[in-house]
Amino acid sequence: MEFPFFHGKITRRTCEELLSKKKKNGSYLIRESESVEGALCLCVFFEDIIYTYRIFREPQGYLRIQTSEGVPERTFKTLKDLIYTFEKPNQGLITSLRYPVKKPNTLQRSQKFESGMDSIYDGEKLSSAFVGILRMMTLTGLW
């Protein structure tokens, strides 16, 4: 399965530049968190502001996302399920996910997992914890 909106290890600033270029409410991408090891960030553009929601891997293998205050926490079996849910309105994000922002062509590579190894990370330095999480997600069918 491919996730062209997954940008891997990019900075918050790069993320903001990519989303701001689109200028469309509901544009989004996913990147690795710079401040929380092993977490992902779902970044969403709305009314000239970038909103960031952290995605955590639970010990049971599920994904948990931090949404708006007062909204009950929810868990998801796969990243695909999470995205599908938040494409619908009024699910706890500032706006629904409408426009995935793909990686620039110069950076985009196959994002298919093959035998536990993710070809997108070949030659890139990522935290071993995050790579381990992605491998575990792949092996358990959660990615």
Brief overview:
InterPro entries: SH2, SH2_dom_sf. It holds the Pfam family SH2. With 143 residues, the protein is α+β, with helices and mostly antiparallel strands.
What do these coordinates show?
Keywords: Adaptive immunity, Immunity, Innate immunity, SH2 domain. Pfam families: SH2 (PF00017). Residues 5-101 form the SH2 domain. There is one protein chain. With 143 residues, the chain is of the alpha+beta class. The protein contains three helices and eight strands. The protein has helices at residues 12-22, 79-86, 128-139, and strands spanning 27-32, 40-46, 49-57, 63-65, 74-76, 99-100, 113-114, 117-118. The N and C termini lie close together (8 Å).
Secondary-structure blueprint:
Elements (H helix, E strand, L loop, with lengths): L11 H11 L4 E6 L7 E7 L2 E9 L5 E3 L8 E3 L2 H8 L12 E2 L12 E2 L2 E2 L9 H12 L4
Parallel strand pairs: 1-6
Antiparallel strand pairs: 1-2, 2-3, 3-4, 4-5, 7-8
Key structural traits:
immunity; 143 residues; SH2_dom_sf; alpha+beta; SHC Adaptor Protein; 6-stranded mixed sheet; globular; SH2 domain
